[in-house]
């Protein structure tokens, strides 16, 4: 697996991400998108963007997990203020 690229997998179920829409695994640059936890295609796209932003921020050392989630949340809603 190329560690310089994000690899996105889609699942119909997952034991480890059962209640999540998506999970990002920094060790392998892999994201899982759990399809049944979405309402529509737009939600799936939003999850892919969300997990991609985790990938983009993977080398930020001064940002903890909660801060990263807040940054991503704000980025995904930023278009409403443009
Ligand atoms: Zn997240």
Concise account of the structure shown:
This protein is 35% helix and 17% strand.
Low-pLDDT residue spans: none
The tally of domains stands at 1
| Number of DSSP strand runs | 3
Rg value? 13 Å
| Integer average pLDDT | 92
Instruction: Report on the biggest sheet.
Output: 3 strands, mixed
- Order of strands across the widest beta sheet? 1-3-2
Q: Helical residue percent?
A: 25-40%
Outline: globular
Molecules bound to protein:
zinc ion
The SSE string, one letter per element, is EEEHH
Beta-strand residue fraction: 15-25%
List keywords for this structure.
2 helices; 82 residues; alpha+beta; 35% helix; binds zinc ion
Can you walk through the features of this model?
By secondary structure, the chain is α+β, with helices and mostly antiparallel strands. The protein is built from 2 helices and 3 strands; from the N terminus they run E-E-E-H-H. It has helices at residues 41-56, 65-77, and strands spanning 7-11, 22-25, 30-34. The protein has a 3-stranded mixed beta sheet, covered by helices on one side. Helix 1 packs across helix 2 (65-77). The termini are far apart. 12% of the residues are buried. The site of zinc ion has 4 residues, from helix 1 and helix 2.
Blueprint of the fold:
Blueprint lengths: L6 E5 L10 E4 L4 E5 L6 H16 L8 H13 L5
Parallel strand pairs: 1-3
Antiparallel strand pairs: 2-3
The structure holds zinc ion.
Zinc ion binds next to helix 1 and helix 2.
């Amino acid at each position: 697996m190329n560690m310089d690229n994000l690899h996105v997998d889609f699942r119909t179920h997952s034991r480890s991400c059962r209640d999540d829409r998506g999970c990002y695994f920094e060790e392998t640059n892999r994201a899982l998108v759990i399809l049944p936890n979405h309402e529509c295609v737009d939600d799936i796209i939003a999850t892919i963007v969300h997990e991609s932003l985790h990938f983009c921020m993977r080398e930020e050392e001064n940002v903890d997990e909660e801060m990263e989630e807040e940054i991503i949340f704000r980025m995904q809603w930023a278009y409403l203020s443009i």
